[in-house]
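Quick sanity check, Aspartate carbamoyltransferase:
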Amino acid sequence: LLGIEGLSRFDIEALLDLSDKAVEVNRQVEKKLSTLRGRTQVNLFFEASTRTQSSFELAGKRLGADVMNMSVGSSSVKKGETLLDTAMTLHAMRPDILVVRHHSSGAVDLLARKVGCSVVNAGDGSHEHPTQALLDALTIRRHKGSFENLVVAICGDVAHSRVARSNIICLQALGARVRVIAPSTLLPTGIDRFGVEVYRDLREGIRGADVVMMLRLQRERMNGAYVPSVREYFRYFGLDAEKLALAAPDALVMHPGPMNRGVEIDSEVADGAQSVITEQVEMGVAVRMAVLEALAAHLPNA
Ligand code: CP
C-alpha cells in the first residue's frame, strides 16, 4: 500500500469495512488474532512518529505477527548507509511486511521496487500518508454514515502535508466535497488540479462545513520558505470556538496529530465536545490491522 492514489472507491470501502470489524476486536478484553501468525513485520521509520509507529506495532501484534521496530537513530544509517542498502539488509532477514516512513517523497515507492516483500507507506515526505487518510475516513463514516454531499474543510499547511494530499484523494473518491483553506504561501502549486474548492480565509472556508480538519505547520519541510509567526498564524488560521461556530453545528473537529496547541488549534476546541481527535487515534490501530490483514491474503503461501 503505497498511497490512496490508485485505490478504487471499492478498495477503500472494503478496507473501511474490515476496519470496522477490527474496532470491535480492539474493544474486547482478548484482542489477539492469528491472521499473521508466523509472519514478520519490520517497522522502519526514518522520521519521528508517535501514533503511526505505535499503532502499526500494536496492529501487527494483535494479528499475531512478530514485529520488529528498527531504530533508525541508532542504526548504521547514522554511519552513512543508504535507504536502499538498509532496506536490502533488512530484506535479507526475510521479513514479510516492511512498514516504512521516510522524509523524501517517493522514497517508499523506490524501496518497494527493490524488495520482494509487501511494503506499507507510513508517510513519505509531503506525498502520501494512506493509512492516515483511511483512519480519517473511518472516523468520519462512523459519525456521519455517508460521504455524499459531506463538506470537509482541510485547513492549514496544505503545501507540505501528505495527510492533506491522501485525504483529498480518499474523500473525493468516497463522494465528499473537499475544501482546502490556507494562506497563499501554504497552498501547493497546482492545487486546482485536485478538484477542490480553495479558500484563503478560514472563516469563509469553514462556513457550513461538516468536518473541520486542522493541520500543523510542518516547519521541517519549509526549507527557508516564509514561516508565519505563531501569533499572526493563530489569529487568522487558528481554529478557536468563535471560528468553529461558523461550521455546521454538528461539525466534527479533526487533527491527525501531532497538534501544536495555540498555533493551528485552541485547546478549548481540541478538547471540546465536537473533537474526535482521540477517536482518530483509536481508529488508527483498527485501520492498520485492516491493511495488514488485507496484505496477508497476498503474502506467499497465504
Ligand atoms: N498522524 C501521524 O502521522 O502522527 P505521527 O507522526 O505521530 O505518526
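Posting the structure with no commentary besides this: Residues 49-52, 123, 132, 256-258 surround phosphoric acid mono(formamide)ester (CB under 6 Å).
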